[in-house]
Amino acid sequence: MTTVLGRLYCDYLMPSQLASYEEVVRTAHEAGYTQTSVRGYFDLVREGRPVPDKVLVHRHDIDTDLRTTRKMFEIEKKHGIRSSFYFRLSTLDVKLMREIEEYGSEASYHYEELATYAKKNRIKCPTALRDRLPEIRSHFIANFLRIEQALGRKMRTVASHGDFVNRRLKVNNTEILEDPQLRQECGIACEAYDRALLDHIDIYIADRPAPQYYHPTSPFEAIRGHRRICLVTHPRQVETNWKENTKDNLFRFYEGLVW
Q: Nearest-CA neighbor of 221 among 237, 236, 239, 202?
């Protein structure tokens, strides 16, 4: 019951956290942090160029709620910072993605083909699912290239989405990219969970439902004690959107029922 009530609060009653997010951006700026995208930071690391003394890498996973995504983007433009926005097939907004890219931030793909394949084909065995990886990878390539063509820009980093199927089967979508040939064919330089990126991060913070908000600590605490921070946020955790949350909850219930 506590879990259900907590979910109802987070999805429908939680006060907006947009002001808090803007305060994170402002606090980091005042503390001398360069605030940048996954792509921007990884390029520095990969090319061996000097890395800022203090850096905050912003990564936004757009699972739902394009309305709040737009609001977060506007806050970032107001403060002149850069970030990465990763869109699922269900949240693709090519117009917004182009705006993000034209501004100088990054818009790319929040992929989930492995989980999607498992649900569509009602596969509940991890081994059976991994046996289908060649076919799943072909779906990823087709989706990736289609999005890239619509965007009209090269996408060089991607980020895996975490689905309830991944948690139940203990199979991550990142396994799709454990294929150098696929990465080369798509021109993908970095997956957001690659060690080549995370080894250059001091602390990785992800948002959580209220009342926790962040794990393992708040970005305000991290700014006081760490120099290289990666902050992962989701619009759903920043502001409630009754329509989008209800639609997503019903669809999630349907998927679990059918699978």
A: 202
According to the model, what pLDDT value does residue 8 have? 86
160, 174 contact by CB (below 8 A): yes
CA angle 189, 201, 191 (to 5 degrees): 25
Q: Is the peptide bond before 211 cis (omega within 30 degrees of 0)?
A: yes
> What does DSSP say about strands 190-191 and 157-160: parallel, antiparallel, or unpaired?
parallel
| Residue 150 belongs to a domain | yes
Instruction: Give me the pLDDT at residue 3, please.
Output: 78
* Whether the bond into 15 is cis, omega within 30 of 0: no
Which tokens belong to 167?
Answer: 């948690």
Closest CA to 86 of 67, 104, 116, 111: 111
pLDDT in tens, 98-131: 999 999 999 999 999 999 999 999 999 999 999 9
Q: Which helix (H) or strand (E) holds 140?
A: helix 133-151
- Residue 92 lies in domain: 17-258
**110: closest CA among 125, 91, 138, 129?**
91
The pair phi, psi for residue 63, each rounded to 5°, is: -70, -40
Nearest C-alpha neighbor of 60 from the set 85, 89, 77? 85
Separation between Cα atoms, residue 186 and residue 38, nearest integer Å = 18
Looking at the structure of the chain, the number of domains it has is 1
Q: Is 255 helix (H, G, I), strand (E, B) or coil?
A: helix
Q: What is the pLDDT of residues 15-50, one digit of tens each?
A: 999 999 999 999 999 999 999 999 999 999 999 989
Two tokens, residue 66: 């394009």
Say if 24 falls within a structural domain.
yes
Cα angle value 221/227/233 (rounded, 5°): 60
Q: What is the pTM of this model?
A: 0.96
- Flag whether pLDDT at 1 surpasses 50: no
